[in-house]
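Hi everyone, sorry if this is the wrong subforum. Our group has a chain we'd like a structural model of before ordering constructs, and none of us has done structure prediction before. Sequence below.
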Amino acid sequence: MTDHKERIIIFDTTLRDGEQSPGCSMNLEEKLRMARLLDRMGVDVIEAGFPVASQGDFEAVQKVAETVENAAVAGLCRAKKSDIEASAEALKSAKRPRIHTFISTSPLHMKYKLQMSPETVLDAIAESVSHARNFSDDVEWSAEDGSRTEDDFLCQAVETAIKAGATTINIPDTVGYAIPDEYAAKIALLFDRVPNIDKAVISVHCHNDLGLAVANSLAGVRAGARQIECTINGIGERAGNAALEEIVMILRTRHDLLPFDTDIDATLITKASRRLSTITGFNVQPNKAIVGANAFAHESGIHQDGMLKNAETYEIMTPESVGRKQSRLVLGKHSGRHAFVKKLEELGYELGDNALQDAFKRFKDLADRKKEVFDEDLVALVDDETGRDHERIKFVSLQIQAGSTGPQVAMLELGVDGEAKQAETEGNGPVDAIFLAIREIVPHDEAQLLLYQVHAVTGGTDAQAEVTVKLEENAKTVFGQSADVDVMVASCRAYIHALNKLLIKRERPARDVTP
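Answer:
Right subforum, don't worry. Here is the predicted structure as tokens:
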């Protein structure tokens, strides 16, 4: 464990403030799973809940306290004896119990929420912290709405809390109103004007209503705070809290300007993020820093070229450092030739200049139609020597009869070598009926359907469906693709596309270029 004055204490409130996000409630077993992982990560303090809020919250804090091996376990409570005693009882079995009590200190909150005078609030601070010290030597006091509290009164409140026995003083930006310079000045003010400030650790707890939670937290650290309160994935009330993963990786990546350390095992960050997403059902946005799906993904040709030459050209940290396997080069319309060639090499292809130029052109055409080009798409590109202009089988029309009562029937017309042919078949669902109709019109008994895949090109009910079909016959594999707003039409066209390729492969010998 790092042990010097520049160490930042990581106080994780995923199980308390994070769980207050609408729709993010966790049951007991889910809280315990997260608590165990947070403990393994090296979190210093785990705020397990608000024991007086409900019997379920009390039991959750109690069980987390019993389970956690290394971290301090905190229970939140208002400046009320009943709250404090409930927290003390729930934390009895904790190896390192912390009682976290709070009261509002801003003029707005004191007048409308508490309906208390400043003098009465100061008395409540002294009484609540003193009472908490009867149960634990580790007491944290928070000034709710601290960032909007008047300077003179905030200094008085902090001095009172420390005098009563608080060992940690937290100055929350409860409504995410502050900006970094302003928040840093608020923290610096305490060091300048509170005479007993050296007897407590100053903590920051910032909300993300203006997107500044992490920036404000780090500004507070630079002003002297040594504890940051944060959550996995930044979940929390309204727009959330400062994200633990961002705090930790900023401190590591920019140690030149922020010479502070934590005891977090960053290789468990991705695991913690995914576990929380699984538990809460809240997916992380793809472009989320550190843990988003695109955080280590590159599509731009210029970026991909740089990455292939030296990863540091476009990555300021390694994916392995946060527990991810590797960076991902996403092939799409912005990709360049270098990344395209690299991907073909990974798939086992070596193309001559002319073949490569043709394949790259067709790749770009495909990428204009698709958000992302997959390995299977590239295999199809290389295998596809002939475009659709030379197809022997052409789609003409399709009618479907389907529904819950059945039967499911496909009425299909195709042009085969210039001749119109029809079939009407029943199947086990409309797609099966379509594919049986194609087989009736163009027999290909030895061919097997290995893949039928559908996904929406865009969101919404009017999205195009993109269908991929994979056929195999005598060790020859072909892919067919099509997109249409009608899923059945796209399915039919994709199958026909694959079948046309198969007919060509029947007639021509296998090429030297194989995957």
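For your construct planning: The chain has three domains: 10-280, 297-383, 390-507. The radius of gyration is 31 Å.
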